[in-house]
Specification:
- By secondary structure, the protein is an all-alpha fold.
- It has one domain (9-79): Orthogonal Bundle (Arc Repressor Mutant, subunit A).
- Helices cover 64% and strands 0% of the residues.
- It has five helices and no strands.
- The longest helix has 19 residues, at 42-60.
- The termini are far apart.
């Protein structure tokens, strides 16, 4: 993996596609481009690995019900929010 300075303009383009990449929603060519870019860009490699771990944690997390007291308090807060009007 290259560590020298890079112009990160291409990184922003790749970043916008990472979620779709992880979810397997991109074509083979785009996936290959992302993988090649991540192999040569420390920042994007790190971002991709972090996003993969985050998705895995979320998929493996057990669902727990929201405590009744918290649920009631949230409902009260939402009901008491001032109404907004659009201009």
């Amino acid at each position: 993996m290259a560590t020298e300075y890079q112009d990160h303009t291409h990184c922003l383009e790749m970043f916008q596609k990472l979620s779709e990449y992880i979810d397997g929603e991109l074509d083979h060519v785009t996936c290959a481009e992302i993988e090649q870019h991540a192999e040569n860009c420390v920042a994007c490699f790190s971002c991709l690995q972090t996003l993969k771990r985050t998705v895995a944690i979320c998929k493996n997390a057990r669902q727990k019900p929201v405590p009744r007291e918290l649920s009631q308090r949230l409902k009260e807060i939402i009901q008491n929010l001032p109404e907004t009007t659009s201009p």
